[in-house]
Amino acid sequence: MIKKLILSLFVIAFFTVSSFSQNRTLPSVKVKNLKGSLVNIQTIENDGNPIVISFWATWCKPCKKELNTIAEVYEDWQEETGVKLVAISIDDSRSASKVKPYVNSSGWEYEIYLDPNRDLSRSLGVSTVPHTFLLDGKGNIVWEHRGYIEGDEEELLEQIEHISK
Amino acid sequence: MKKNLLLSFIFISPYLLLSQNNLGQINGNFETNLQSYTDDPSIDAIAADEVILNNAYLNILYTKGDFTGGLRYESYLNALQDYDSRYQGNGIPYRFARYTSDGLDVTVGNYYEQFGSGLVLRSYEDKGLGIDNSLDGVRLKYVPINGLYVTGLIGKSRTYFEYSKGIIRGADAEFNINEALKLEGETSYILGGSFVSRFQKDNNPAFNLPENVASMSARLNIMHGGFNYYGEYAYKINDPVGSFSFDENNYSTGKAIVNNLTYSQKGLGITIESHFVDHMEFRSERAKQKEFIINYIPTLSKNHAYTLLALYPCATQPEGEAGFNTNIFYKIPKNTLFGGKYGTKLNLNFARTNSIDGGNSYLNDSSSHTSNPFKSISIKDETLYFSDFNLEINKKINKKVKLNLVLAKQKYNKDVLEGKTIGEYGIISSTIAVADVSYKIKKGHTIRLELQELLSKDDATATNHADGDWHMVLAEYTISPNWFFAIQDMYNYGNYDEEKQLHYVNTSIGFMKGANRFEIGYGKKRAGIFCVGGVCKEVPSSNGFSLNISSNF
Q: What residue numbers bound the domain in which B214 lies?
């Protein structure tokens, strides 16, 4: 009897765990666009193509290195894989006003959002920048990477190519 | 019978659970920072009694649709030496539940919030600085009509593992006129206003202290084409510290004015930011200590990422400061003489802060004294706090070589910015040069070299000498996507005291894979000021091993 009970408890535990969604998706959290409007991050989309979400800040050297490096090849990436890059700045009020001037002067073609209160970065477990997520066409987070060292963009491209096939 | 019912329920329930195909998601992140401390008399580093100290935390979030619940387990056994010792032991100081239903966003438990640019309220966490002043209570957000965003909150502010005595009540409204009126024009307007009040009982028999201390602000944001203007005005009523001594209780009011103007187009960005601050520190408790601060006054200087450029960092003086910070970002186009094949990026920055006209209200101890913000701009008459004039050039030479150069002239009023006695160190003038070159050896393999030099001049009128001149060299070898190796040496060769002409050598190795990151390090760290976003803490010198592991799930 007790054995049966224990067994069934295990079965419950197993199914409970396995029925938690295996696919991580973006939480329902609002970020600001450069026009000052709040946008729910779940509403970003890319016609079923992959989306890269990159957390960065104007004071973060490796972040800028990563996004500047990708900017040079972004058009090729878009053509090949249909990918879209969404750069989310975690700059607070000290540097948030520099985001748009920096982005424009650098000529980035990314979709830019601000997360000054870190609501989104906190709910995705982003503790340091840069931190990059890759979403497949259905919005599942399929890959993530902390930090940036030169050459990391090639691994990111491999991952994008892998899911955009 | 009951038993049977129970049994059948137990057997059926897995299938019930399965049929509900989504029970939500659980995710989180974990970090641990371990450090060993050994004695090193040459740099005044002190061994820890425990030998090893460790800070760790784990965040767990559960999300299902519009519901989120979360908690953070924190462990300080015992806290690292650069942390306040009141972070001690284990606990769950952060837990919350939040849901959104028909546009009403409800949070109970701990939350982080910022009104406007933070002049009247900012509760946030910064692990690097050891700051976490999350509010614990209730917060509501609602959008009653299109474009109108309303937030109301009540809570107590966290200080280490406790809560400070004051009860914080706040409300904020932001009105996006273009969203409300569905205007599609080139110009857009956003208006905002905040009100925050702290209640704390007056138990002081000697003084009549305000029990409800209010702080309020109004803001305006106009965007037109490439232009963006942001202005905010904040005011705080008198807030004496509640001591028993007449000298320490101060009944002056506080105010702050922020004006930012930016312009940008493809290839060019210009920012002009300025502020005037007078006695505007707002605390969660009637006290002086900085752990109670619940507002934020952005620092007017560039946030430097190179060590020697940040050796003497600017920090806002909320008791009284006027200043400005300007930036020009320009990209010299490709295929021009100076642009070369890839273009060249320039950033020219000039920032300066100084004391305010006629001294701050706190010193004058009079609610009728008004320091004139316009007069405070006349730099000549005011005491300099900080200035930084720098140029950064970022250039990709070819497919293999990238170059970043910075040249800076800084002035740093050590007495004011570090709270020393006036005349002790005075104003330190320094000239700093940084060269950062990276060379790609082959696919994934990169070597990077940083050379930094700081030449400084002590204040001739000061009684003490500052640290003098420094060299720094950093070499880094990275193998994408998994490894990095780094070694750096800071050498204080120009110290006035020959015994302090020391090398601070640090080595580190890191391994990253997917969502996990491991880093081990060994070396000496100098005592100094460590800042993030203009908020600073003093870090003691140390010598030892460190281990850092972070992971996401």
A: 103-241+257-295
Check residue A15 and give its pLDDT.
46
Q: What ipTM was reported for this prediction? A: 0.91
Chain B, 275 to 314: residues with Cβ < 8 Å from chain A are: 296, 298-299, 303-305
pLDDT of residue B3: 52
Q: Check if B409 contacts A (Cβ < 8 Å).
A: no
Please check whether residue B74 lies inside any domain of the structure. no
B506 backbone dihedrals φ, ψ, rounded to 5°: -135, 135
Query: Based on the domain organization, do B284 and B350 belong to the same domain?
Result: no
E strand segments, B2-51 = 25-36
Same-domain pairing of B226 and B326? no
CB pairs < 8 Å spanning A and B: 203
Q: Tens digit of pLDDT for each residue in B522-535?
A: 999 888 777 665 56
The reported pLDDT for the residue numbered B23 is: 83
Contact B18 A107 (CB under 8 A): no
Residue of B221, B268, B478 with shortest CB distance to A105: B268
Place of tokens 């019912």: B5
> How many structural domains comprise chain B?
2
Handedness of CA B269, B275, B280, B281 (dihedral sign): positive
Co-location of B389 and B409 in the same domain: yes
Q: Both tokens of residue B353?
A: 């802060």
Give the confidence band of B127 by pLDDT, cuts at 50, 70, 90.
confident
Domains of chain A: 25-164 (3.40.30.10)
Nearest-Cα residue of chain A relative to residue B447 = A150
Burial of B385 (0-12, 13-18, 19+ CB in 10 A): buried
Residues B446 and B431 occupy one common structural domain: yes
